[in-house]
Design goal:
Shape: flat
Helix content: 40-55%
Largest sheet: 2 strands, antiparallel
Number of strands: 4
Number of helices: 6
Distance between the termini: 91 Å
Strand content: 5-15%
Order of helices and strands: HHEEHHHHEE
Strand order of the largest sheet: 1-2
Structural class: mainly alpha
Length: 194
């Protein structure tokens, strides 16, 4: 082995980690993960046989098939959130509905564990929104346009003074404007001020 081998493997690990972070950032990753994790106990517990010493507990119920279907659907919805981001709202609502149904069908929603995880995943899926790409310079936008983010002011359009968004001319100019040159804010109690 040469001295360069650890550095090369560290670079590969770093690249893989960054690639995964970029992939995770473009989709509702945590919503899908929690939804899939919620489906596992809902589908597993009705078919599990637990051993306590020499005694075995079987929790099979008549609704075991329903529990399996709900668990598989939750896992499928979690994968859908990862790979089809456009359907995230539908998948989130469906996950919440399936989690609520699992309370009655599947041993109190997989002993509340699966229920809570599926509810959290569904809520995260509904609330996730894709991020917007930022410009590299952070300055004016292409085409001479200024910032267009929330809170940015729009330039005033050419219009008649007194229209909404248009400034009034100062007193003493030849422009009569509204009400014969008197600005509306100059009226107090019906009396003319100024």
């Amino acid at each position: 082995m040469s001295a360069e081998t650890p550095v090369q493997s560290a670079g590969t690990f770093t690249r893989q980690r960054r690639r995964f972070r970029d992939w995770r950032g473009t989709r509702p990753f945590w919503a899908g993960l929690f939804t899939m994790l919620g489906g596992v106990p809902i589908a597993y517990f009705p078919y599990a046989t637990l051993k306590l010493g020499t005694m075995s507990l079987t929790m099979a119920t008549t609704a075991g098939a329903g529990s399996l279907i709900i668990g598989v659907l939750l896992i499928t919805l979690g994968l859908t959130m990862w790979f089809q981001q456009a359907t995230r709202v539908f998948a989130g609502v469906a996950a919440i509905i399936l989690a609520l149904v699992s309370l009655v069908v599947s041993n109190i929603g997989g002993f509340i564990i699966g229920f809570l995880l599926a509810m959290l995943g569904g809520a995260l899926g509904i609330s996730w929104a894709p991020g917007k790409a930022e410009s590299a310079g952070g300055g004016p936008q292409p085409g001479g346009q200024g910032p267009t983010a929330e809170g940015a002011t729009e330039p005033a359009s050419d219009g008649v003074a007194g229209e909404p968004g248009q400034p009034f001319p100062p007193f003493g100019t030849g422009d009569s404007g509204p009400a014969g040159g008197v600005r509306p804010e100059a009226h107090h109690g019906g009396h003319r001020v100024g």
